[in-house]
Amino acid sequence: MRTIQIQVPDNIDMKEYDFSMIIASKLYIDAKLSSGQAAQMVGLSKRAFIELLGKYGVSLFGNSIDDLHSDIANA
């Protein structure tokens, strides 16, 4: 895994962990990372990552009923 460094304004009061979760969550939503890869990115177990997704505004379920049917069909 590679490391990327970003600069954040001083007035943003967030922990590094929150930034990592936000980025990992976004990459997970966009299907760039699996839940396991995203969990590894932030140093969590897959289960812990999935349990925390709601805190970051991410649903495990697709945005539409078609996504849900697709997930069921592929299970």
What would you say this structure looks like, in words?
- With about 80 residues, the chain is mostly helical.
- The protein has one domain.
- Helix content is about 50%, strand content about 0%.
- The longest helix is centred in the N-terminal third of the chain and has 14 residues.
Largest sheet: none
Taken together, the total number of domains comes to 1
Please provide the count of β strands. Answer: 0
> How far apart are the first and last residues' alpha carbons, in Å?
29 Å
**Amount of helix:** 40-55%
Radius of gyration: 14 Å
- Strand/helix succession: HHHH
Overall pLDDT confidence: 87
- Strand percentage: under 5%
Structural class: mainly alpha
Shape: elongated
Oligomer: single chain
Low-confidence stretches: none
